[in-house]
């Protein structure tokens, strides 16, 4: 099918991402999606059993907690009111660009990322209730700290935004820059949550694992698009 690229030049419809068809591609995809899921299962088992990994996690947290304004700012980047509007702006931009260039099913990538964001509380909240992990001592009594909802929100919002933007960015430097920015933002959120004592390190790592698998699945559905 003929259509125009982002600069208005006619071209053929680019290939669309999907599940790899080659054996090596399928193995790579399974590793991308499966390894984080396995790591999440291991962490969850250790937290539930209060195993050696969970005990190391708690000792490490005790040495890391030191509250301050800079780390509070980093933790706040995982708030819904901060991260979700960023994703929403990218969803609208990408949908507009795709429609303007005559893409078939121009709405699908944005809809997929929006669905991924909407699913976050549907798996985070039940896991918090089921596992009922207490928080760091500075948070006082209470449970529901595992996994970290702020980490999941930031990971899906910033990670999903980058995956949608990549096909529309011109040049490798621009693509590298947005990937690095998303990684730095998510590391910052995780560090801020741990440093402020809002979460144990494993709470953050567990959310990263789940979101890595979810974003990997989204990546296979993102249109290659013009570069």
UniProtKB/TrEMBL annotation:
Gene3D superfamilies: Phosphatidic acid phosphatase type 2/haloperoxidase (1.20.144.10). Residues 1-22 are annotated as: Disordered. InterPro entries: PAP2/HPO, PAP2/HPO_sf. The chain crosses the membrane at residues 29-53, 73-94, 106-125, 145-166, 178-198, 204-222. Residues 142-219 form the Phosphatidic acid phosphatase type 2/haloperoxidase domain. The keyword Transcription regulation does not apply. Pfam families: PAP2. Residues 1-10 have a biased composition (Basic and acidic residues). Keywords: Membrane, Transmembrane, Transmembrane helix. This is Phosphatase PAP2 family protein. It comes from Streptomyces phaeolivaceus.
């Amino acid at each position: 099918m003929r259509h125009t690229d982002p600069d208005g030049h006619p071209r053929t419809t680019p290939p669309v991402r999907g599940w790899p068809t080659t054996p090596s591609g399928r193995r790579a995809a399974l590793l991308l999606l499966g390894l984080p899921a396995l790591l999440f299962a291991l962490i969850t088992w250790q937290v539930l059993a209060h195993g050696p990994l969970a005990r190391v996690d708690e000792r490490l947290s005790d040495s890391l907690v030191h509250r301050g304004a800079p780390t509070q700012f980093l933790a706040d980047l995982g708030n819904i009111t901060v991260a979700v509007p960023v994703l929403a702006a990218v969803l609208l931009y990408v949908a507009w660009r795709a429609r303007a260039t005559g893409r078939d099913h121009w709405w699908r990538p944005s809809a997929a990322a929006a669905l991924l964001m909407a699913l976050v509380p549907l798996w985070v909240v039940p896991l918090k209730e089921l596992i009922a992990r207490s928080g760091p001592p500075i948070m006082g009594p209470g449970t529901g700290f595992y996994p970290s909802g702020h980490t999941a929100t930031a990971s899906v919002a910033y990670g999903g935004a980058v995956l949608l933007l990549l096909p529309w960015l011109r040049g490798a430097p621009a693509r590298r820059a947005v990937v690095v920015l998303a990684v730095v933002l998510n590391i910052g959120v995780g560090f801020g949550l741990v440093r402020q004592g809002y979460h144990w390190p494993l709470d953050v790592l567990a959310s990263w694992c789940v979101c890595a698998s979810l974003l990997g699945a989204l990546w296979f559905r993102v249109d290659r698009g013009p570069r």
